[in-house]
Amino acid sequence: MVGLEFDRLEDGYTDKIRRWVPFYDELLQSLFTDLPADFRPKSILDLGTGNGNVTFLATQLFPEADYILVDASAKMISHCAQRFGDSDQFIYKQRYLQELSFLPASFDLIVAGLSLHHLQAGEKQELFKKLWRWLRPAGVFASTDLYVDRSQEEEHAAVLKEWERIAREQGSDTDDWEYLMEHYDKYDYPHSFEDQLQWLRDAQFADQRIVWVRGAWGTIQAIRQ
Ligand SMILES: C[S@@+](CC[C@H](N)C(=O)[O-])C[C@H]1O[C@@H](n2cnc3c(N)ncnc32)[C@H](O)[C@@H]1O
Asked: Whole-prediction pTM value?
């Protein structure tokens, strides 16, 4: 179960992910760099929050907003509760994304940092339809992630090669890389930019685009009109 896997990664998570994921800090920043002018979300949902690094960035920009943080890992969620404290402004849910349910028009901004590659194709498509309903008109969904189709063998092999090169530059050693590939085979289901943009269109998002990209790593933003 992916929740238990991330329980095991909670200790020292930020150091590990900065070694493992190419351009980690830039990816997270890119969730917020190309938002519509004068966008001031009052209510923000963080999908697969981990130890809260995405929410932390959001609080720097939108200190008045209310936040709901969701993660399958009990340890990650309790880390977030310690990090952001006990107040009405932050709600913590240890929950699988597939089981989430909210009233329509609950959020202005929904963000996902490196979490949706844990969902299979059908699960992503179902979630995108729900996200559209949970957003208010003019609400924004942004997801930063690895975008590649595993069935495109040559392209996929090239992406892994480049990933390893960058991970090693960022301080990963052989043990890190072996662990990463084991984790990737067990828990990760990335899909291409094209597929995910199409699934967002299918879910009625009227405006969806890539706002940041470096190789197979990037950020998609979609607006609910
Ligand atoms: C790679 S981490 C990213 C964490 C954080 N968003 C960040 O950018 O550092 C993925 C997170 O998604 C959570 N996750 C994975 N699959 C999930 C699912 N189906 N439901 C809820 N959380 C999930 C994991 O527990 C983990 O904390």
From this structure: 0.98
Residues 111-142: tens digit of each pLDDT: 999 999 999 999 999 999 999 999 999 999 99
Q: All domains of the chain, ordered by start, with CATH?
A: 2-223 (3.40.50.150)
Instruction: For residues 45-71, give the mean pLDDT.
Output: 98
Question: Among 1, 5, 6, which is best to mutate for testing ligand 1, by the most ligand atoms less than 8 A from CB?
Answer: 6
Residues in Cβ contact with 196 at an 8 Å cutoff, skipping those fewer than 6 apart: 124, 143, 147, 220
pLDDT digits (tens, 9 = 90+) for 103-116: 999 999 999 999 99
